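Page 42, continued from yesterday. The earlier attempt failed because a stray header line got pasted into the input along with the sequence. Redoing it now with the clean sequence only.
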Amino acid sequence: MRIGLIAPPWIPVPPVGYGGTEAMIHALATSLAAAGHSVVLAAAADSTCPVERIGGFAPAERAAMGRTSSELPHVIRAYAGLVDVDIIHDHTLAGPLYRHRPPGIPVVSTIHSDMTPELCRVYEAFSRDVSLVAISQHQANSAPDVKIRRVIHHGIDPATVPPGDGAGGYACFLGRMAPCKGIAEAIEVARRAGMQLKIAAKMSQPAEVDYFRSVIAPLLGPEEEFVGELDAAGKFALLGNAVALLNPVQWDEPFGMVMIEALAAGTPVVATPRGSAPEIIEHGVTGFLAAATDELASCLQRASGLDRYDCRSAVETRFSAEAMTRKYMELFEDVL
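This time it went through. Structure tokens are written below.
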């Protein structure tokens, strides 16, 4: 099968640092190619994913993230370059609404956002002629009026993640510098647990910088270390040496790629039971789920007693790129 993939324009595929959607697209593209399919990727010009790529795109511009003025030209160029594929898998918001999509080529769209009332109306419009994929059951359940064709969890290739032993003795936070990600809460939980915390976070948007300067920086003490945004090697080293990933999200996150990245490194996850977390974390086996700060701190203290093999095994069996790809191929074949 010849499959066209459309990535958003703002981060290269694969991402150099932060970029869960782009990491997922890279894993899917390479896994589809390894399975013998012909893959054509429409992505930012500085993408390095080793599949056929359409030319003519601008380099990634993370500062423009979310701007319609940069997404629309990208989408128009992408669809113009995908006239010879069997199916198009679009990961943008604007693409499925583009009027001049190639006729006769079915489109599948994966929903990477939370289902706000405004976006639900957009996806309801999509579903008239586009097959929609939710990335967690929670995301699908939060939009009962949107026609979801499949629920498919993200996956990664565990062979690309070196297993760690947690010998660093610290907890880590990995994500984006934003209140909804729970960084302030992670600091308080680690302190109550008496554990050092290393914080790695994307901090490029003005709101992210402001949040760090006004809220997080004043909270940092001798047991907290902000290490900035890490590349893939640095990220997996941080995760592998950690006793646990501390992920006390304060919103209903649709998936949370960082949780399966931690598990692939053998690192348990201590998280709030919101969004997709209960679908990813098996409480008492691959991590712990708790809402209250004291309970999270107690869970963090117990995380070192979990079997790191069970964490990695969960990715190999449930969240691998191969498993994700198999489910997408079943959908593609059904759509065709």
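Notes: The longest helix spans residues 20-34.
Reminder to self: strip header lines before submitting.
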